Amino acid sequence: MQALLVIDVQNGLVHKGDFQKELSNIEMVIHDFKEAGKPVIFMKHTDDAENSPLYRGSTGSELHSSVKKYAQQVIEKQTPSAFYNTNLSSSLDGLGVDHLFITGFNTEYCCLFTAISAFDRGYKVTFLEDVTATVNSADTYEMQGLHIRDFIGSVLHVSNVIEVLEYEEYKEKYRLAPSS
After folding, report:
1. What pLDDT digit, counting tens, does each position of 106-126 carry?
2. For residue 91, how far is the Cα from the chain centroid?
3. Has UniProt tagged this entry with the keyword Cell inner membrane (predicted)?
4. Per-residue pLDDT tens over the stretch 1-11
């Protein structure tokens, strides 16, 4: 069984940039999974630090309006991995999931850590590269010319253990619901 993880699509991250294309892609994949009756699980990162954009209970920690209406199952986490100290594994096992699709924020942290953690737990993993986004840039890492999504996608692709697809490739290979 396939399941979609929608990681940290929260106001405190989404409001830090222009992510309309990524949000549109995320919503289309959510819709695809929902139409096919496949599980969609939302991860929500919360921090206890009051200065965090994802401070527990703040507006920043809430799911963004573009995805909130789809969120029937939400699991909170406090680390980059969606598996660490959460009930994600037991939820997936209960659903019979063996193949996870990774989308959300931040590409190089929570999406990457979760993809690797999922593989380590025996799941087939498909990382939807342009269905992830990051609030960081080449300047954040002082690495001029760095395109974070492409870099993370390349690293995962070269690993030969995690499938990396662009949204258009996903549609061709996995489109679960009929086109609208």
Report:
1. 999 999 999 999 999 999 999
2. 17
3. no
4. 999 999 999 99
Q: Copy the structure tokens of residue 42.
A: 């939302």
Q: Residues 132, 102: contact at Cβ < 8 Å?
A: yes
Note whether 48 and 79 are within 8 A (CB).
no
Cα 1 to Cα 38: distance, rounded to the nearest angstrom: 8
Q: What is the DSSP string of 110-152?
A: IIHHHHHHHHHTT-EEEEEEEEEE-S--TTTTT-TT--HHHHH
Class assignment of domain 2-174?
Answer: alpha beta
What are the contacts of 153-159 at 24+ separation with CB within 8 A?
153/127, 153/129, 156/112, 156/115, 156/127
- Tell me the domain boundaries of the chain: 2-174
**% of the chain residues with pLDDT over 90:** 82
